[in-house]
């Protein structure tokens, strides 16, 4: 399976960094990029995508995202957004400075049809003392 990825973030440097990481991976076929929530909705209607990497600032309607095929990225973790992401079928909630390994794992999760998996950036989860 070759993945079509939609990168939704208003910052070009973030989209560039994600694209630079993913382009080296053989299962990635195409990229679409958007910078606003309106462009995100339009792109989802006009292009088939296998994975949406979206900054939480661009999401107000989680039902518009493809269930089982989106990851929300954040620079300020928010527990309610994490729960919305999980409850609406997201496959992950990651900090925007997530490791390359965590980002590659999202590609793997996007290829798993019918299996419910969810990844949370370890820096978000409090460690019990």
The gyration radius over C-alpha positions equals 14 Å
**Fraction of residues in H or I helices:** 25-40%
Q: β content, as a range? A: 15-25%
Shape: globular
Q: What low-confidence regions span 5 or more consecutive residues with pLDDT below 50?
A: none
DSSP helical segment count: 4
Total tally of structural domains: 1
Strand order of the largest sheet: 2-1-3-4-5-6
Which class do the helix and strand fractions yield?
alpha/beta
Largest sheet: 6 strands, parallel
Task: Explain what the structure shows.
- The chain is α/β, with parallel strands linked by helices.
- The chain has one domain: 3-Layer(aba) Sandwich (Rossmann fold), CATH 3.40.50.
- Helices cover 32% and strands 22% of the residues.
- It has helices at residues 12-22, 37-46, 79-87, 100-110, and strands at residues 3-8, 28-34, 51-55, 70-74, 92-95, 119-120.
- A 6-stranded parallel β-sheet has the order 2-1-3-4-5-6, with helices on both faces.
- Strand 5, helix 4 and strand 6 (119-120) form a beta-alpha-beta unit.
- The radius of gyration is 14 Å and the shape is globular.
- The termini are far apart.
């Amino acid at each position: 399976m070759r993945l079509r990825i939609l990168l939704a973030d208003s910052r070009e440097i973030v989209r560039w960094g994600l694209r630079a990481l993913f382009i080296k991976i053989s299962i990635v076929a195409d990229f679409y990029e958007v910078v606003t929530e309106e462009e995100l909705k339009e792109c989802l209607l006009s292009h088939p995508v296998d994975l949406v990497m979206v900054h939480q600032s661009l999401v107000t309607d989680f039902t518009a995202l493809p269930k089982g095929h989106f990851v929300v990225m954040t620079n300020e973790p928010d527990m309610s957004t994490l729960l919305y992401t999980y409850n609406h079928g997201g496959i992950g909630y990651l900090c925007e400075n997530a490791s390359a390994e965590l980002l590659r794992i999202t590609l793997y999760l996007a290829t798993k049809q019918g299996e419910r998996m969810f990844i949370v950036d370890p820096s978000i989860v409090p460690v019990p003392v």
